[in-house]
Design goal:
Elements: E1 2-4, E2 9-12, H1 19-26, H2 46-57, E3 68-73, H3 76-89, H4 102-106, H5 125-129, E4 135-138, H6 142-152, H7 175-186, H8 191-200, H9 202-208, E5 224-225
Parallel strand pairs: 2-3, 3-4
Antiparallel strand pairs: 1-2, 4-5
Helix pairs in contact: 3-7
């Protein structure tokens, strides 16, 4: 999460939505509220942020009523596949129980095992923005939407979107793991998996206007508000 006192905005970093790139860009702006966030707040939900804001900063949280909240979202089926690859890359350190097969991994949504319960990226994207009506950009149109958001926030034309990837920080040389990741990229979802992801992330799909064949519905591309 990024909180900027000068430009009065809060960036909500939903996991696996290119948030690392956006945080890198917004993080270089003058006016960061360093009391409001720390390393542990990277993927904090709005409700968690609001609950801790006064204790962290010593300020009344009512001042946030003048702030704009911003978030990026991603097609749930694409996001889930990205999470699978990320966990496979981390197998040397964590998540040793991650199923190698993509569709087997989808199966954990039926009954999330203990080892996966703390994986924030499994949470619906709508959980992270509950409590506010943010400006929503899309992973699928990130360049265009990032520029539009910068215009709305009056950040100027010189702010460029960084191209970072949290997975690149993982130095994996084990050919067996790299082979698993490669196979995950090539695998296709079964009809059962498509339906299960659709059921589990139904609120995201309805709120953000996504469908299973990738990308957003044509009539709902571009920036939007949740309308809550």
């Amino acid at each position: 999460m990024i909180v900027n006192k000068w430009h009065k905005f809060v960036f909500i970093h939903i996991p696996k939505t290119a948030g690392t790139s956006i945080r890198q860009s917004f993080g270089g702006l003058w006016g960061q509220d360093k009391k409001a966030t720390n390393r542990k707040t990277k993927h904090e939900t709005v409700l968690q942020f609001m609950e801790a804001y006064e204790e962290r900063t010593g300020n009344d949280k009512e001042i946030l009523e003048d702030y704009r909240f911003v978030a990026f979202v991603r097609n749930p089926w694409d996001r889930f596949r990205s999470l699978h690859r990320y966990l496979l890359l981390n197998q040397n350190r964590n998540h040793l129980n991650t199923p190698e097969n993509l569709n087997d991994f989808v199966g954990i949504l039926n009954d999330v095992p203990e080892w996966a319960k703390n994986i924030r990226s499994l949470r619906p994207q709508s959980d992270f923005i509950e409590g506010v009506d943010p400006i929503i950009g899309r992973f699928e149109t990130i360049e265009q939407d990032f520029r539009s958001i910068c215009d709305i926030l009056n950040l100027g034309k010189k702010l460029n979107l960084s191209h970072e990837n949290g997975s690149r920080d993982i130095d994996v040389k084990d050919p067996r793991i790299l082979d698993k990741v490669s196979r995950s990229r090539r695998e296709s979802y079964t009809a059962e998996s498509i339906a299960l992801i659709g059921k589990h992330y139904r609120k995201d799909i309805e709120m953000f206007g996504y469908k299973a064949d990738g990308g957003a519905l044509l009539e709902e591309t571009g920036l939007r508000r949740t309308g809550r």
